[in-house]
């Protein structure tokens, strides 16, 4: 999965029917899924597709916004009617976050298996172990729910950043490469409240 595809997720627009839809479930029938089939299906159908359904409901009385991309909805939410601005920003942000997460965890799609990116991580962090340590610590120190991101800025520099809830990094400055869902719904069925075990398993899957 390349960074152009990630950008296409942020620029996703509603279909011809004016409806936003979650990207397809990325795991084929009988194929291994992360962290397991039941959790992945609940995560995709209940939270990702659920955010799409809720976003469509909020926008149903405001058809002018149906032509906007998810990114435009997030970045322009503060100028929307007060009745919908908070929900639209949260739900469109959730769709972007989940779209990137599922795209990166799909079989064979992990950016961490890309030799060029691995080389950049080695140069930037000294070793993959150091990168994993810093990323994991960021996840463990994130209070409440949110996401941890590997980002590239306009000068090509990599950084690790957390965001709370469904907030996004500054997309005018950073291009997302991958993210880790730190909401409990991503891991509670399998690891309860052990985010550290979930993060370690995620790295094993991604690498």
Throw out a few tags for this protein:
Helix Hairpins, mainly alpha, three-stranded antiparallel beta sheet, 207 residues, globular, 2 domains, minor pseudopilin epsh fold
Any overview of this molecule?
The protein has 207 residues and is mainly α. The chain folds into two domains: 103 residues, Fe,Mn superoxide dismutase (SOD) domain (Helix Hairpins, Orthogonal Bundle); 96 residues, Iron/manganese superoxide dismutase, C-terminal domain (minor pseudopilin epsh fold, 3-Layer(bab) Sandwich), CATH 3.55.40. It is built from eight helices and three strands, in the order H-H-H-H-H-H-E-E-E-H-H. Helix 2 runs antiparallel to helix 4 and helix 6 packs antiparallel against helix 8.
CATH architecture of the largest domain: Orthogonal Bundle
Strand order of the largest sheet: 2-1-3
* Rounded radius of gyration (Å): 17 Å
Distance between the termini: 14 Å
Biggest sheet layout: 3 strands, antiparallel
**Name of the CATH class of the largest domain:** Mainly Alpha
Structural shape: globular
* Share of residues in strands: 5-15%
Structural class: mainly alpha
Number of helices: 8
Helix content: 40-55%
Whole-number mean pLDDT: 96
Spell the H/E element sequence.
HHHHHHEEEHH
- Output the CATH topology of the largest domain: Helix Hairpins
DSSP strand count: 3
Number of folding domains? 2
The CATH superfamily title of the largest domain: Fe,Mn superoxide dismutase (SOD) domain
Contiguous uncertain segments of 5+ residues: none
